[in-house]
Write a structure and sequence with these properties.
Blueprint: H1 3-18, E1 19-26, H2 32-42, H3 48-60, H4 76-81, E2 88-93, E3 98-103, H5 111-118, E4 123-129, H6 136-147, E5 152-158, H7 167-184, E6 189-193, H8 217-223, E7 237-238, E8 241-243, E9 255-259, E10 264-266, E11 270-274, E12 278-287, E13 290-292, E14 294-296, E15 300-305, E16 316-319, E17 327-336, E18 342-343, E19 347-352, E20 355-369, E21 374-377, E22 381-382, E23 387-398, E24 411-415, E25 422-428
Parallel strand pairs: 1-3, 1-4, 4-5, 5-6
Antiparallel strand pairs: 2-3, 7-16, 8-9, 9-15, 10-14, 11-12, 11-16, 12-13, 12-15, 17-23, 17-25, 18-22, 19-20, 19-24, 20-21, 20-23, 24-25
Helix pairs in contact: 5-6, 6-7
Amino acid sequence: MSNSVETAVQLADLSATTLLRFATAGSVDDGKSTLVGRLLHDSKSVLTDQLEAVEAASLKRGQEAPDLALLTDGLRAEREQGITIDVAYRYFATPRRRFILADTPGHVQYTRNMVTGASTADLAVVLVDARNGIIEQTRRHAAVAALLRVPHVVLAVNKMDLVAYEEKVFASIAEEFTAYASELGVPEITAIPISALAGDNVVEPSANMDWYGGPTVLEHLETVPVSHDLTSCHARLPVQYVIRPQTAELPDYRGYAGQIAAGTFRVGEPVTVLPSGRTSTVAGIDLLGESVDVAWTPQSVTLLLADDIDISRGDLIVPSGDAPATTQDVEATVCHVADQPLTVGQRVLLKHTTRTVKAIVKEIESRLTLDDLSQHPHPGQLVANDIGRVKVRTAEPLALDSYADSRRTGSFLLIDPADGTTLAAGMAGESFATHKVLTTVEDEEGWDF
């Protein structure tokens, strides 16, 4: 193994053991931003000038103590209204681990933003107000976390100071949420009673809840086992750019550049290019200006193939013995994120990795009712924040993995072809549904594939 590859392996191992991506979610006024602010403050991850700015802003609002929520509510509209609107990303570290944190909104109309924040998360912290218990928005966030295959979910029962730190209140909420999330298929659920405002069980153990013997929020974040080992997954390289310098030094150079979405590629390995199905062999791999024998996710590389075949942006390079089937009929669960509804027969663009193709929504099989996880068949349309099952017919074949196998190559976006608005985020093959709808839709404007 060369020194460059050896160094890259060491860096990859370091990243795998020290980096955690997590998102916070919950209903309005559950205290998400306060929890994040408390984490940043008590872990000493706040710069002096940031804290001074928060203290000044808090005084202007008539608050004696610093409002730690202002550390994440960065938009002016958020500060003025006292709510979280956008996804606020923060980066902090402790001696045990580095963190990338996404503080997502709690209002129902901003549920779509949670999809963005949780799409790359290894863990989701769902907050619940101890006074209110589990409500619809809590179920919605749990459903989104389950759909996005977030492997770890923390239930943070907040504002325990307002219910006299009663154990039975926490136990009742934890039992209800665990039963609901388990039904959704969430693999691991950890419940922690906290007071973000007072700091109970956030970074330091609470003296007010001696009946709780579990970890604090930060302790759990520092110790939860997180696997970033995507090198053993199905190898996939979406082609982003074809490099042909055509210089005197490199007259015959033709490379296919992109970020490896999953798995590992090696020189000498037989590969297949999808959707064409053409085959070749990896003749070389360029990484950061150097030739290497092996490359893995999430490295950005240029592959050189032994044969001069037709490859363009949007094609997918995969090992010949591990190629996904191509299809024009996509069945998926989608989270609708646009203000305008998604309707049967609607013409859309489907963006999968680096490939964008025309498509038609052939069926909306069902819409998920979050209260009891029942399916409402044939809804006709999906509106903002709806979760539903759809069938989409594409103009060209796509090579999609199941989302359960790969979050990168099993996901896609539906886009409005008129103005480029993102309509829905889709997960191929994912389903809560048991009811199957069998209908077809004919299109009158030449988009019937």
